[in-house]
Amino acid sequence: QVQLVESGGGLVQAGGSLRLSCAASGRTFSRYAMGWFRQAPGKEREFVAAISWTGDNTYYVHSVKGRFTISRDNAKNTVYLQMNSLKPEDTAVYYCAAPRQMYGLPNYYDNSNWDYWGQGTQVTVSS
To answer: Distance of alpha carbon 78 from its chain centroid, rounded?
Structure first.
């Protein structure tokens, strides 16, 4: 059974930084892409970032490009999201996600390609 456990959320002032971590278990981590999504109050869950199973390719929503960096450590079965220059509009619950499909995905930005979710971690950015 795939389990995803996020950590690292919190309260930070605008312009600050946070690093989210997601520890995965239940299968061979290195064979699967990993992703991060977020959901703000009253809004739908949206794609934030993803990393391919090889780690060679990363994908970001336009609003976080240049500020967020996704990375993975296969030895630790962990994916990270480094968030810099945070803005109040980044406030949301952040979810780690993993697909059922091994190796590459047809579309990393499509929520329907992601099957497993963590419990979420709150990120609040004050102005």
So the answer is: 11
Q: What is the pLDDT of residues 6-29, one digit of tens each?
A: 999 999 999 999 999 999 999 999
Please report, as a single letter, which amino acid is at residue 117: W
Structure tokens that stand for 80 in this block: 């990270």
What is the rounded CA–CA span in Å between residue 60 and residue 66? 9
Give residue-wise pLDDT tens across range 57-102. 999 999 999 999 999 999 999 999 999 999 999 999 999 999 999 9
77 contacts: CB under 8 Å, gap ≥ 6 = 23, 24, 25, 29
69's CB contacts (< 8 A; 6+ apart) are 58, 81, 82, 84
Q: Which of 63, 65, 67, 97 is nearest to 84 (CA)?
A: 67
**Which one, of 93, 95, 72, 68, lies nearest residue 82 by Cα?**
68
